[in-house]
């Protein structure tokens, strides 16, 4: 029986260790869950901002990089404390649903339409994104959609709607359900067109066979907001930390950092700070 | 081709220079997957042994479940563990989602059936007469179990390798319950996906190579123990 007892002791020890390890996680106020879009993470912006925030407040930020749609779904369940997203129409609904408390403009950049260099749909030089979408549909050239309810995807759907085209079930319309970087890679391999945020495109450009074809249209503006989750609705939310994060990201100092980010690597900023503009 | 060469060069450079960020990721990978394998070892070996040495009704059904579990899709495990650990979920009060503990739990769930299944097969492969002989010599049940495990130690080492190999190379569950947080829950597989997303293909290839080398070293060590035993 000696062996059996030794074995049971070991099992108990393991369970105990696992339990002890779990305890410090309970209701920590020094942690903050930030649900955000892949573009802020993949561009490297958060790698610059978050260490700064931790140094200032002692709060460790856990970044969960998903599409804006999923980030807001997490917010609606109180699974995140603060959101950094770029899907204004969905954000409006989110705020009306009472899920958010603070809601502030942070920055913008823009979407671009990219496609193969030989440009079979002849989009190059087109000024209006809606006209470009119409041309694309008429030409039957392949379009790669994110299809993941991200901010980019909802922007794309809005443009199709404004162009009065229903792309679903069309042979030339395909959906990846992947992040921006992966979708760009798929589009590049398949010589397809896609809508992308400029930051992710610039970061991946050297490995893509895609060119910018349509840019600069007002309808292609990509706006980022920060939202703190309503602690009245979800008591487990780190309210204090979330508000500190909101104040941090719209502060003068951080806004300046955002404006300078990417200049050394790409020659132009990836994001344009907006929080201090009136 | 250039890209692969660049990746290999970068991997070499990162390993030789003991790059602190990479070392952190490697260490976390070993800690998390090592703890998960360790826990699975207890759970899997005991379950496998108990089922192998007892005859009961519905045994075939239980064995089928374990064998199915050996191919448990990590992403499904990740989804269920994440839902359980959500703040709004039944275990939300623990507050351990997006921590290494959550990753250890998910990986242990993946590795346990693998280890249980191989243990089960190993114990059942021992000749029946051996068991009778041990009992005939007056051994207690616990002594018999110990002797049988000793007899089956070579396939049991294979179980450890399969369990560790399964969790160290797994991504679906780790990213769902861990969240790929830098310096906290970022392991080799999730870091590889992250770097690919950023277009840093050379770093991604380098991390992939480091993962392979790591898995090789551990398996080489376990294999040499196994083979030495045999001779």
Helix content of chain A: 40-55%
**What oligomeric assembly is this protein in?**
heterodimer
Number of domains of chain A: 2
* CATH architecture call of the largest domain in chain A: 3-Layer(aba) Sandwich
Q: Please indicate the percent range of residues of chain B in DSSP E strands (runs of 2 or more).
A: under 5%
Provide a compact summary of the structure.
The complex is a heterodimer of chains A (278) and B (231). Chain A has 278 residues and is an alpha/beta fold.
Give the SSE layout.
The complex is a heterodimer of chains A (278) and B (231).
Chain A: H1 2-22, E1 31-36, H2 38-42, H3 45-57, E2 60-65, H4 68-76, E3 82-85, H5 88-96, E4 100-116, H6 129-139, E5 143-145, H7 151-162, E6 173-175, H8 180-190, E7 194-197, H9 198-204, E8 210-214, E9 221-229, H10 239-249, H11 252-260, H12 263-266, E10 272-273
Parallel strand pairs in A: 1-2, 1-3, 5-6
Antiparallel strand pairs in A: 3-9, 4-7, 4-8, 4-9, 4-10
Chain B: H1 2-16, H2 20-53, H3 59-69, H4 74-85, H5 100-125, H6 128-136, H7 141-151, H8 153-168, H9 172-178, H10 188-197, H11 201-230
Helix pairs in contact in B: 1-11, 2-5, 2-8, 3-5, 4-5, 4-9, 5-8, 5-9, 6-7, 8-11, 10-11
């Amino acid at each position: 029986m000696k062996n059996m007892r030794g074995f049971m002791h070991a099992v108990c020890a393991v369970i105990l260790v696992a339990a002890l390890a779990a305890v410090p996680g309970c209701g920590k106020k020094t942690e903050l869950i930030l649900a955000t879009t892949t573009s802020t993470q993949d561009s490297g912006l958060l790698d610059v901002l978050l260490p700064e925030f931790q140094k200032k407040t002692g709060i460790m930020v856990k970044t969960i990089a998903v599409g804006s749609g999923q980030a807001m779904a997490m917010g609606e369940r109180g699974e995140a404390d603060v959101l950094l997203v770029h899907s204004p129409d969905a954000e409006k609904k989110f705020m009306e649903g009472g899920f958010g408390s603070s809601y502030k403009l942070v920055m913008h950049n823009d979407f671009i339409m990219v496609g193969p260099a030989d440009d079979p749909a002849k989009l190059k030089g087109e000024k209006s994104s809606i006209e470009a979408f119409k041309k694309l549909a008429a030409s039957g050239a392949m379009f790669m959609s994110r299809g993941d309810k991200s901010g980019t995807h909802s922007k794309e759907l809005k443009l199709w709607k404004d162009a009065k085209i229903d792309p679903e079930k069309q042979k030339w319309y395909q959906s990846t359900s992947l992040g921006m970087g992966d979708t760009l890679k798929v589009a590049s391999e398949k010589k397809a067109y896609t809508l992308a945020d400029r930051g992710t495109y610039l970061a991946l450009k050297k490995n893509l066979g895609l060119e910018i074809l349509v840019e600069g249209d007002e309808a292609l503006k990509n706006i980022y907001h920060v939202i703190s989750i309503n602690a009245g609705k979800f008591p487990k939310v780190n309210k204090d930390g979330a508000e500190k994060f909101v104040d941090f990201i719209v502060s003068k100092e951080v806004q300046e950092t955002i404006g300078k980010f990417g200049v050394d690597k790409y020659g132009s900023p990836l994001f344009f700070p907006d929080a201090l503009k009136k | 081709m250039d890209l692969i060469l660049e990746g290999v060069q970068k991997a070499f450079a990162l390993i030789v220079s003991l790059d602190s960020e990479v070392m952190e990721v490697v260490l976390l990978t070993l800690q998390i997957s090592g703890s998960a394998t360790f826990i699975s070892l207890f759970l899997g070996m005991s379950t496998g042994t108990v089922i192998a040495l007892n005859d009961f009704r519905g045994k075939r059904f239980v064995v089928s479940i374990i064998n199915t579990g050996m191919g448990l899709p990590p992403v499904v495990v990740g989804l269920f563990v994440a839902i359980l650990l959500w703040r709004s979920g039944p275990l939300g009060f623990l507050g351990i989602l997006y921590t290494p503990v959550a990753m250890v739990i998910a990986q242990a769930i993946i590795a346990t059936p693998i280890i249980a299944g191989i243990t089960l097969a190993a114990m059942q492969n021992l000749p029946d007469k051996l068991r009778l002989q041990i009992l005939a010599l007056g051994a207690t049940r616990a002594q018999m179990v110990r002797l049988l495990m000793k007899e089956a130690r070579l396939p049991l080492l294979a179980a450890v390798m399969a369990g560790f190999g399964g969790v160290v190379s797994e991504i679906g569950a780790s990213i769902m319950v861990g969240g790929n947080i830098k310096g906290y829950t970022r392991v080799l597989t999730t870091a590889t996906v992250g770097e690919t997303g950023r277009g840093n293909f050379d770093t991604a290839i380098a991390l992939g190579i480091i993962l392979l080398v790591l898995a090789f070293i551990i398996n080489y060590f376990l294999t040499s123990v196994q083979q030495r035993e045999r001779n």
